[in-house]
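Lecture notes, unit on protein representations.

Consider one protein chain, 154 amino acids long.
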Amino acid sequence: MSFLCNKWLTWVARLVLGVFFVVASYHKILDPPDFAKAIYNYKIVPGELIHLSALFLAWLELIAGLAIIAGLGLRGGAAILGCLCLVFIVALSYNIMRCHPTICGCFSTYAESLTKTDDQKYFEMKREILLDCGLLLLSLQILWATRGKFSASD
């Protein structure tokens, strides 16, 4: 278990997790209406919360990703990103289960999804679930390695 507390492993986990979410937030912040369409297409979020969710989630991803990279609010950032990964895993799995192909919205726009077949969407959804599981493990490693600490430098 001491391997999970290795400072270099934690540093790599912070960098990968943080950069992933900072990059993923970029197009969502630049084009909130497109991200709102992706959220709407999940058919999970109530209509009156879609636009608020599109704005809030994009900025939450950016701030938590930057916190992870900088090491400021490291445990909080890791917990937030881990929870977001869980939400994405559940949302994508639920849509696969009910045979509703959609796009994740992480790196592709809603407009790009209009040209994809259902099979392509299902493949991407399954790939995104695996990716989110990996990112969840990174956030758990950070939380494990920094338990009882307030920053990565302690």
